[in-house]
Design goal:
alpha+beta; five-stranded mixed sheet; 18% helix
């Protein structure tokens, strides 16, 4: 199933951060990140309250040094369905 929104996922050393050209969300944990994405989408006004939004988060592997990329399985992409 295709995602409604695609975001780039990074870790800035303190927070998980997801963004695209329209939104930025962050959280100390993945659970907090999901809640912040919900908040941002609700406040954006593009989705009705009670709707479900499928969100794809693709990890930006360019944020880690080349020599560490051999361990890339420690990083991930994720798709979630969020209730707004």
């Amino acid at each position: 199933m295709k995602a409604d929104i695609e975001l780039v996922l990074v870790h800035d050393g303190k927070h998980w951060v997801c963004s695209n050209d329209a939104i930025v969300a962050r959280g100390n944990t993945i659970k907090e990140l999901d809640r912040d994405i919900q908040r941002v989408l609700r406040e954006g006004g593009n989705y009705t309250q009670g709707s479900q939004v499928r969100v794809f988060m693709g990890f930006d592997f360019d944020t880690i040094p080349t020599w560490l990329r051999q361990y890339h399985t420690h990083y991930f992409n994720r798709t979630v369905t969020l209730d707004l």
